[in-house]
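Narrative summary of target 7.
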Amino acid sequence: MASSDIIKRELSLRPVEVEIIAEKPVEDKPFVLKDVTYGSDEFTLNEDAKAALDSLLIPFLKLHPKDKITIGSHTDDQGAHKYNINLSQKRADNVVKYLISKGIEASRITAKGYGETKPIAPNQNSDGTDNAIGRAINRRTEFLLQKAK
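Modeled conformation, tokenized:
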């Protein structure tokens, strides 16, 4: 049975939308699980985030026990830079704690908080007004797979 077959089987047990085009994570290309997002000024994982991790990432990491992963968390541009760095690090650390609680070895995981430094959507509209949707998109966690050599 191919690893992609196992991942598909896991996904069919509990459907979760993910923003991954490939059947499995691709090395050196960050990806976002759609449901691993955060409310403003929040860093805890909600049930949707846990379900997304349980459905795709954790099964994949268990199938590939030598691969490593970097967890990169982000914020919107609200608040001071130092605060956002700390908040995003708490987000990344919570993902790491969750993965460890599910049996993924800590030595395989790196966590990095980027604060507001790497937005993927505008935090303000072109007229200078608040872009709540863009800010919500920026409050995310990205995953970067490093295949075992």
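Residues 27-146 form a domain with the 60s Ribosomal Protein L30; Chain: A; fold (CATH 3.30.1330.60).
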